């Protein structure tokens, strides 16, 4: 998987791309990340990438020329998505991460700033807009990093035990079940007896019940969706 990140702040990604499972996956070349600064494609001596919006308004917009030039400088793989990080985009969720991991060889992630980007980028370059949720951040690098992390961990070879990917929150539409480790008693709080019983059938039953209970309590929207999909 190739990630091309169009970002005004390449240094933002340095530490995150070297840490944890993501860093190990990149070191094993399970995926590759290129960082491209649109300032390198600005057309004036000051390397300016933003300007005032037509019609007035507060703030600045990223100009179309450096974004188009940066994207057009990239190699093109057959299965490519060009994604703009935008609060107006479709919400990022596990099914979208699975779709991208399965169907794409190349993800071009455009990190917005200021008041956004010129609409011609959206209309004539971007294939998809993605949002972390109904809130506004100072930069598009945060959601871009979330996409990289979420997609790479689904690629073969990143996670040691593939079974661990199948028993997580959202994988079957429910939240994850509670999990415990040693010691069996901590400050008087005990690990549920069923988990120490060795009876895997009962453990599976308990875990499913806990997933249902937790989803009902914490995410009634997911619970309703889970029920509808089984009708």
Structure explained in plain terms:
With 231 residues, this protein is an alpha/beta fold. It folds into 2 domains: 2-152, Alpha/beta knot; 167-229, tRNA(m1g37)methyltransferase, domain 2 (Trp Operon Repressor, Chain A, Orthogonal Bundle). Helices cover 34% and strands 17% of the residues. The protein has helices at residues 20-27, 64-72, 94-103, 119-124, 141-152, 163-166, 200-218, 220-229, and strands at residues 2-6, 32-36, 50-51, 61-62, 80-91, 106-111, 128-131, 185-186, 189-190. The strands form 3 sheets. It has a 5-stranded parallel beta sheet, with helices on both faces. Strand 8 and strand 9 form a beta hairpin. Helix 7 (200-218) crosses helix 8 (220-229). The longest helix has 19 residues, at 200-218. The protein is elongated and about 70 Å long.
Give the tags:
231 residues; alpha/beta; Alpha/beta knot; Trp Operon Repressor, Chain A; five-stranded parallel beta sheet; two-stranded antiparallel sheet; 8 helices
């Amino acid at each position: 998987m190739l990630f091309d990140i169009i970002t005004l702040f390449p240094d933002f990604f340095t530490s995150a791309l070297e840490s944890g499972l993501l860093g190990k996956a990149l070191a094993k070349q399970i995926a590759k990340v290129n960082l491209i600064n649109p300032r390198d494609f600005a057309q004036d001596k000051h390397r300016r990438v933003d300007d005032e919006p037509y019609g007035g308004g507060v703030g600045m917009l990223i100009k179309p020329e450096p974004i188009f030039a940066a994207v057009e400088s990239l190699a093109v793989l057959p299965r490519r998505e060009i994604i703009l990080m935008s609060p107006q985009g479709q919400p990022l969720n596990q099914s979208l991460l699975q779709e991208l991991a399965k169907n794409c060889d190349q993800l071009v992630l455009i990190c917005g700033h200021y008041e956004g980007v010129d609409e011609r980028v959206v209309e004539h370059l971007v294939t998809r807009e993605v949002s972390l949720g109904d809130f506004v951040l100072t930069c598009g690098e945060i959601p871009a990093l979330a996409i990289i992390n979420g997609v790479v961990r689904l690629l073969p070879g990143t996670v040691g035990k593939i079974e661990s990917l199948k028993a997580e929150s959202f994988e079957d539409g429910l939240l994850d079940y509670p999990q415990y480790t040693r010691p069996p008693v901590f400050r008087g709080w005990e690990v549920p007896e069923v988990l120490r019983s060795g009876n895997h059938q009962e453990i599976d039953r308990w875990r499913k019940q806990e997933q249902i209970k937790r989803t009902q309590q914490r995410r009634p929207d997911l619970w309703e969706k889970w029920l509808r999909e089984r009708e």
